[in-house]
Design goal:
The strands form two sheets. The protein has a six-stranded parallel β-sheet with strand order 3-2-1-7-8-9, sandwiched between helices. The protein has a three-stranded antiparallel β-sheet with strand order 5-4-6, covered by helices on one side. The N and C termini lie close together (11 Å). It contains ten helices and nine strands. The protein has two domains: 2-28 and 75-115 and 161-234, 3-Layer(aba) Sandwich (Rossmann fold); 29-72 and 117-154, SIR2/SIRT2 'Small Domain'. α8 (163-175) runs parallel beside α9 (194-200). It is of the alpha/beta class. The chain is elongated. Helix content is 36%, strand content 19%. The chain binds 2'-O-acetyl adenosine-5-diphosphoribose (OAD). 2'-O-acetyl adenosine-5-diphosphoribose binds next to α2 and β8.
Length: 236
């Protein structure tokens, strides 16, 4: 912990990659942990273009449920610690796999959302993208003004990540002197690939996770515990 604190104090360029674990203490279930199943489905069964083509209503019911949980949740001490860190470091980039928007609500700016945003909806016919904060949505599945079927503005398994966002994420990772990996199982690619990229580019990599991950043995410092407790400590 002490070493990690010093690296963070001395760095002028820091990037952080967050996953579902940072929002767990806000009451949002992670994908691969306890409570990750919705009815009998796993994320991999629902967050795919194939699942949506087969049963758009079912997929939307899942998103509508998650949107409801998120709307009633508040950012936690982990989200807030990253806001504080950003204010202190010369160059700070926050990369998140989370679609919940809790980093924004905590006060983080310019968050790179590599998996999109659950509050955005996109028309599968005309391509128009808009924000829709209504909870619950009045109609499932929702439709666009043009009559087309709307889909969530998130990235599904098998889909490419938003080009610009991903390029920025890679650039920030390569430039980081310290790279934080927080609350992610680090098994979904390409996002998880940022961890070895940071390491190869010479960053000190600090992992914060309740459990061991595939990268725990390779990082420079692996802190085991809750993000909401460890992050405020490590930036202190
Ligand atoms: P996962 O659910 O796979 O992993 C959550 C991680 O957070 C696990 O490693 C837990 O040990 C850890 N964790 C849980 N609670 C924690 C806490 N309080 N503090 C610290 N760590 C904690 O979520 P992700 O890795 O984010 O993608 O999943 C990656 C992607 O898979 C998601 O973005 C989503 C999902 O399917 C898409 O939908 C495309």
């Amino acid at each position: 912990m002490q070493r990690a604190r010093e690296w963070l104090r001395e760095a002028s360029s820091v990037a952080a990659l967050t996953g579902a674990g940072i929002s767990a203490e806000s009451g949002i279930p992670t994908f691969r942990g306890a409570g990750g199943l919705w009815r009998e489905f796993r994320a991999e069964d629902l967050a795919t273009p194939e699942a949506f083509a087969r049963d758009p209503r079912l997929v939307w019911e899942w998103y509508d449920w998650r949107r409801g949980l998120i709307a009633h949740a508040e950012p936690n001490a982990g989200h807030r610690a990253l806001v504080e860190l950003a204010q202190r470091v010369e160059r700070f980039t926050l990369i998140t796999q989370n679609v919940d928007g809790l980093h924004d609500r905590a006060g983080s700016r310019d968050v790179l959302k590599v998996h999109g945003d659950i509050w955005m909806v996109r028309c599968t016919a005309c391509g128009r993208q808009t924000r829709d904060d209504r909870v619950p949505l009045p109609e499932l599945p929702p439709h666009c003004e043009c009559g087309g079927l709307l889909r969530p503005g998130v990235v599904w398994f098998g889909e490419p990540l938003p080009d610009n966002v991903w390029r920025e994420a890679e650039r920030a990772t390569r430039q980081a002197e310290v790279f934080l990996v927080i609350g992610t199982a680090a098994v979904v690619y390409p996002a998880a690939g940022l961890v070895p990229l940071a390491k190869a580019a010479g960053a000190k990599v600090i992992e914060i996770n309740l459990d061991e991950t595939p990268y725990s043995a390779q990082v420079d410092c692996s802190l085991r515990g809750r993000a909401g407790e460890l992050l405020p400590e490590v930036i202190a």
